[in-house]
Amino acid sequence: MSGPVLYLDGVSVVFDGFRALNALSLTIDAGELRAIIGPNGAGKTTMMDVITGKTRPTAGTVRFHEHDLTKLDEATIANLGIGRKFQKPTVFDALTVFENLELALKAPRGPIACLRWVLSGESRRRIEATLDEIGLTARAHDRAGLLSHGQRQWLEIGMLLMQDPELLLVDEPVAGMTDQETEHTAALLVRIAGRRSVVVVEHDLEFVRALGSKVTVLCEGAMLSEGSIDHVQNDPKVIDVYLGR
Amino acid sequence: MSSTVNDVAPDRASRARLGLRAGLAIAVLLLALLPLLNRLPPDSALHVSDFIISITGKWITYAILALAIDLAWGYVGILSLGHGAFFALGGYCIGMYLMRMIGPRGVYGHPVLPDFMVFLGYTELPWFWWGFNWFPFAFAMALLVPGALGALVGWLAFRSRITGVYLSILTQAMTFALMLAFFRNDMGFGGNNGFTDFKELLGMPLSQPGTRAVLFYASLAALCGALWLCARLTATKLGRVLVAIRDAESRVRFLGYDTARVKLFVFTLSAMLAGLAGALYVPQVGIINPGEFAPGNSIEAVIWVAVGGRGTLVGAVLGAFSVNALKTWLTSFAPDLWLFVLGGLFVAVTLFLPAGLVGLFRGRGPKADPKGGR
């Protein structure tokens, strides 16, 4: 697999005169793991909103393979193969861990299809494999509301995997995690990438270093710098933005 | 990782389910006995009066309406304050059939036109009354008309992502608008007076106790059927999608579900269920008029569900019976107090018993306790 999966060119988003994104261009290749960092208000979340169809860009091109994402709604984009993990973990508390994964499993999504849905052996195996991957096998039949913060984040990543997406957008996965949980999460994301493209938005530079991936720095809605973590950390423009002028 | 999957939860849940089923079976049996006890001689200790039969039959239809509301509110989070409109429309459809069945026995003795039409100077039956002399058609309409209105309102609202209190206001406005419309004489539905003086249903005279018993059993069967249908539906993956939409709709959308379509499906089904309840209600009470569209009726029905415990199905049924029993008892000696008691009940349940009456029995059961912790 090669070539860009996701292609953003000259994307701008203006809210009431405020430029959340300012002619942002970005390319993600197949199987690539990419970290995106930037100060608060740099446009990281807005960028994810644009890719997933939650926000419409004021100008620019957003393509996923040959699909023009600016014309599609959230559900259609999700079904094309773009999965998103939100900053605040939103798993379904009233359902069990297993049921959460089952809902996310790639399958026909219509009301009648859901009514007639029967869990096949193959689907069960896929859910169990994901449970194992995210380390929640022992909690399979506990309601998601009982999980710890870190476990909820993993469940949410597991739900993304069940959708079998080509591109994963992961927003601040380690916020509020212990060091051990952070390490575990980094290893999980590195394992996932390769088979799929993964874009991680994160503040935690130690975590980004552990990912060992190419890093894009956003600032004021545009790209400031791009390269390895060592490269961007030594870039004077980045130092300026992070440490103040 | 080893598969030390926690088995305690399913075990406990299945035991609770077993208890619930036993309780339900006993309740249904007791209800089914009532018309038989009604046949006993009046001086017998076990005799059940006609009044009890007619009022219990009415409550059974209220319980079906409560189930319809619980399906939409308790599971998908659509708080409809206009379900009384679907109930009333179902009732009007059967009412139209019953009016046609009066035939020439009306005051004016017209062979086809109901009295109010003769009085208003109609010379022929309006087109929208055609076919209502045929019971299967009228019964189908009692489900389809509310279903179509539910689908239309739902389609407009869910497509535009109208949720929460705005949706509640919209449904409340819907029932209010229908009430005003049905009050008009030129609507062709009897205006202010609605329909009454019914004579027979499927050839059975409505005044006879035997017919009452048939309607009672039909309602009871419909309630059991509705409960079974809702229980089956909520046990499928669709049921879990509904709960997920209720708790985090946008997240469900990002999972690739068209939540508007799912909500439309359930809301339409719920409207049809409410229509069924109305269709069973009208022949038992013998009258339908625009008052049934009053916004207060819809709100009262929502309170039944809140009192019983929403999102539990059984709670809706329990709430409909218990609140109405309280209402009947209280209004027999202090009718002016009822609205205060109803309001107070709603506040008390919201504050002290968020899981409703069912929560009392279930304790910290899996569904009743939203915050978790077994």
Automatic annotation (TrEMBL), chain A:
Gene Ontology molecular function: ATP binding; ATP hydrolysis activity
Gene3D superfamilies: P-loop containing nucleotide triphosphate hydrolases
CDD domains given in the database record: ABC_Mj1267_LivG_branched (cd03219)
Residue ranges constituting the ABC transporter domain according to the UniProt record: 6-245
Repressor recorded as keyword: no
Stored SUPFAM superfamilies: P-loop containing nucleoside triphosphate hydrolases (SSF52540)
InterPro entries, A to Z: ABC_AA/LPS_Transport (IPR051120), ABC_transporter-like_ATP-bd (IPR003439), ABC_transptr_urea_ATP-bd_UrtD (IPR017781), P-loop_NTPase (IPR027417)
Keywords: ATP-binding, Nucleotide-binding, Transport
One GO cellular component term noted in the UniProt record for this chain: plasma membrane
Protein's recorded name: Urea ABC transporter ATP-binding protein UrtD
UniProtKB/TrEMBL annotation, chain B:
Keywords per UniProt: Cell membrane, Membrane, Transmembrane, Transmembrane helix
UniProt superkingdom: Bacteria
Transmembrane parts of this sequence: 20-37, 49-69, 75-99, 135-158, 165-183, 214-231, 264-282, 302-325, 337-361
Lineage: Bacteria, Pseudomonadati, Pseudomonadota, Alphaproteobacteria, Acetobacterales
GO molecular function terms listed in the Swiss-Prot or TrEMBL record: branched-chain amino acid transmembrane transporter activity
Pfam families the record matches: BPD_transp_2
Keyword Transmembrane helix: yes
Localization annotation: Cell membrane
UniProt name for this protein: Urea ABC transporter permease subunit UrtC
Primary location recorded for the protein, binned into one broad class: membrane
GO cellular component entries: plasma membrane
Membrane topology of the entry: Multi-pass membrane protein
